[in-house]
Structure formats: structure tokens, C-alpha cells
């Protein structure tokens, strides 16, 4: 257990940051899955709608890197995989 006031405050800060990061990472997984499923469907979605899903995923990846939640290379890898899949479709 924390003994000093600073250590107790740091526990609260770490918990707050962990909750925030978990929220963003969960949202990222959802958005990426939506983008992949939009690219895989052959009917029902126009090319503009597919592009919108991919762009929102790319945007969120950039946002998480700027916030320090994701590493730059991890984001680049995910963006590359998504772009490759979008280009093939």
C-alpha cells in the first residue's frame, strides 16, 4: 500500500490513464473491425461508404499516436495492413 500522499495520488492518476487508454484501444479495435468488414462485404455498401470506414480507422490511429496511447510503428503497421486490404478490394 502507498505510504505517501504523492504515491496515493499517483495510484489514482495511473488508474485514470489506464481506464482512458482501455476505452480508446477498445474503440480502435471496433473501428478497425468495422473497416475490415466493410471492405469484405461485396454488396450493400457503396465505395464511398467503404472509404469512410477506412478513413475513420486511419484517423483514429493517428489520434492515438499523438496522444501517446499507441506507438508510432504499431500504428504504421496497422495502417499499412488496412491500406493493403483496401487497395485489393
Question: Helices and strands in order, then pairings?
Answer:
Blueprint: H1 5-40, H2 47-67, H3 72-88
What distinguishing features does this structure have?
89 residues, mainly alpha, 3 helices
In short:
The chain has 89 residues and is mainly alpha-helical. It is 83% helix and 0% strand. It is elongated, with a radius of gyration of 18 Å.
Task: Give a verbal description of the structure.
With 89 residues, the protein is mainly α. Helix content is 83%, strand content 0%. The protein has helices at 5-40, 47-67, 72-88. The N and C termini lie far apart (54 Å). The model has no long low-confidence stretch (mean pLDDT 93).
Q: Main β-sheet: number of strands, strand sense, barrel status? A: none
Structural class: mainly alpha
Rg from alpha-carbon coordinates: 18 Å
Strand content: under 5%
Number of strands: 0
Overall pLDDT: 93
Question: Termini distance?
Answer: 54 Å
Shape: elongated
Please write the string of helix (H) and strand (E) elements.
HHH
Task: Give the proportion of residues in helices.
Answer: over 70%
Counted by DSSP, the helix tally is 3
Low-confidence segments, ≥5 residues, pLDDT <50? none
